[in-house]
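Hey, I'm writing a tutorial for new members on how sequence and structure tokens pair up, and I'd like a real worked example in the thread rather than a made-up one. If someone can provide the structure for the chain below, I'll link this post from the tutorial.
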Amino acid sequence: MTVSATEAIATGEGQEAAVLLERTRETVNPDLRRTVESLPGSMRRVAMYHFGWEREDGTPAAGNAGKAIRPALVLASAQALHGAGGRAGEAAWLGAGLAAAVRPAVAVELAHNFTLLHDDVIDKDVRRRGRATAWTVFGIPDAIITGDAMMALALRLLAEDPHPASAEASSRLAACVVELCAGQQADCAFERQSHVPLDACLTMAMAKTGALLGCACALGALYAGAGPEEADAMDAFGREAGLAFQLIDDLIGIWGDPGHTGKPAGADLLARKKSLPVVAALTSGTAAGEELAALYAGPMTGDDVRRAADAVERAGGRDWAQAHAADRMGRAVQQLSRAVPDLGAAGGLLALAEFVTRRTL
């Protein structure tokens, strides 16, 4: 008997996702750290600081290396495809399957952190994970170079892997990064434009965020022995879930609690970012949208940030983003069912997807 999407999502997803993320960190972080420690000299120091494992002076720190959502998607996707084979598939996953999937999980996390190091420089963000960003501590050149080295490590991990799926995985990750960079470039271009169509903003977000989540799911599927069609379906699942993730992330960028985000309240508005709720508000044709456009035309103060947040909400940007995130999650589940018809085998994936789209503001 198959499990419906609603039933699969509604049963203890928060607790299951928390357990899965913690298990992923325990499984992946040792290999991730060993890989990062292989970097030479100053790049190693910047990377260890960025991941929260060292302080600025190089002494050990019990920091936060991140939520591990992307490596968790790799492992959960591999498990879902193994589990689709019944008890024998589940047994294979608990043995060699888990060990084999760790390397692509590390590669995806390295690629993700490559983007974070660069994004912090581009966006001039001074806080990440509750402390100063790497570029503010070590300088822009070292942060950029360390990010480049992380991306090279990610591709080398896959290139040197004897697993039969490694070549396809490496190709997919490389293509994903090119798409991701195109999304970042579009995002930067939008900041210089007075008018940005909502469809263009959605396309940018799919490339900038959805592509890597989709790639993570596809790599997990490939390492579970999936064929091209199943891998493509898993990629589509991750992309749709990734867009839902970005919509919620954009809402948090406006209304998030600084105690949870590690960033100042309204940081995205202060930087006049063209996030999805903002663009939805700017293109709403409402008086509140016009008020927001006027605020975005000049530098922001603290009072302006509060007024801008209120204008986004009155123009419907907040409600639109929340509704569109739910719609994208529905599409994600449809794509997932193409690769895993019995969604009961994909409980971990569904729990993760629900977790990232129901984070509190």
